[in-house]
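Please fill in the sequence for the structure shown.

STRUCTURE ENCODING:
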């Protein structure tokens, strides 16, 4: 039976560290703050934004929410980003994705000042991740790295397979594991022999968006299995990209859904907000 890596437990430890750091910064007159923009009425996005607010409250980070209507224009959204870019009391800016279809997502991400880009989606921050020299970390992959550290899972020389090549999870995940000297393979929808590639992995990270995509026959005995997927089923329950019940019997470590990677993403966001506040107040790099 696999050891369950509890995102709740690890994220609490990270958030506690962040809270301590925030308290220290406040003593120096610095109050980290995060502005979250939500456009439209996507129910899942509303839940995420609410969870981010709760985490800010826990850490002592000032949170500002900008809830914009579905009909918001590109110009209005860009104006808000510009205003927040220029507001010295705002350290981090996050625009909750996905945006309604009529809006240009990449243009908005590109407009956020790199120093305030707590999601690390701006091309400048993406470039830093490629080089391996970064201050702002991509939240989900970085949260997963935190889980590896917490559990003492060593990646050096390991065969790691990431399933999914999105800009927000798959690609940066591969880069962070590469930096730890893993041998990394990225699989995606065009990959041939995916099953064989995954079956040779010491560590599998599934970020596909298909419920129970990774089955027990695909993983090798003792593999570390990280499930990024958040899929809402017809009964309203959440399901990951991994067949948890079956893989749990074969893996050495596994993350549950919910309560796995999700809380880590938010904890890293808190960390990034503090990093942004420190950079803007010349306390860090
Ligand atoms: P995405 O839709 O942008 O990318 C999915 C990737 O899966 C693509 O690269 C695609 O090539 C690959 N893929 C699709 N079908 C495939 C197949 N049959 N075989 C192999 N690869 C295939 O998704 P994303 O934004 O990276 O998100 C992936 C999942 O992770 C979603 O369920 C999403 O909700 C979840 N997610 C969770 C968190 C978190 O904090 N836990 C954060 C971000 C995303």
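FILLED IN BY: designer on duty
SEQUENCE:
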């Amino acid at each position: 039976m696999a050891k369950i890596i509890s995102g709740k437990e690890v994220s609490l430890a990270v958030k506690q560290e962040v809270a301590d750091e925030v308290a220290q910064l406040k003593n120096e007159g610095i109050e980290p703050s995060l502005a979250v923009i939500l456009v439209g009425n996507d129910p899942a996005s509303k839940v995420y934004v609410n969870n981010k607010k709760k985490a800010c409250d826990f850490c002592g980070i000032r949170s500002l929410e900008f809830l914009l209507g579905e009909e918001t224009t590109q110009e209005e959204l860009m104006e808000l980003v510009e205003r927040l870019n220029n507001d010295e009391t705002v350290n981090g800016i996050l625009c909750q994705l996905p945006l309604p279809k009529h809006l240009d997502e990449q243009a908005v991400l590109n407009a956020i000042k790199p120093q305030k880009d707590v999601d690390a989606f701006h091309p400048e921050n993406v470039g830093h991740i490629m080089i391996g020299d970064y201050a702002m970390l991509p939240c989900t992959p970085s949260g997963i790295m935190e889980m590896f550290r917490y559990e003492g899972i060593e990646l050096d020389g390991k065969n790691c397979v990431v399933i999914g090549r999105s800009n927000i999870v798959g690609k940066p995940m591969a880069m962070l594991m590469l930096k730890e000297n893993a041998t990394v393979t990225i699989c995606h929808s065009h990959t041939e022999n995916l099953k064989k590639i995954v079956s040779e992995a010491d560590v599998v990270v599934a970020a596909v968006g298909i419920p129970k995509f990774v089955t027990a026959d695909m993983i090798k005995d003792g593999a570390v299995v990280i499930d990024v997927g958040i899929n809402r089923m017809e009964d309203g329950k959440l399901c990951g990209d991994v067949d948890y019940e079956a893989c749990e019997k074969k893996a050495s470590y596994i993350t549950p859904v919910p309560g796995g990677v999700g809380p880590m993403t938010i904890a890293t966001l808190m960390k990034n907000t503090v990093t942004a506040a420190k950079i803007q107040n010349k306390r860090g790099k």
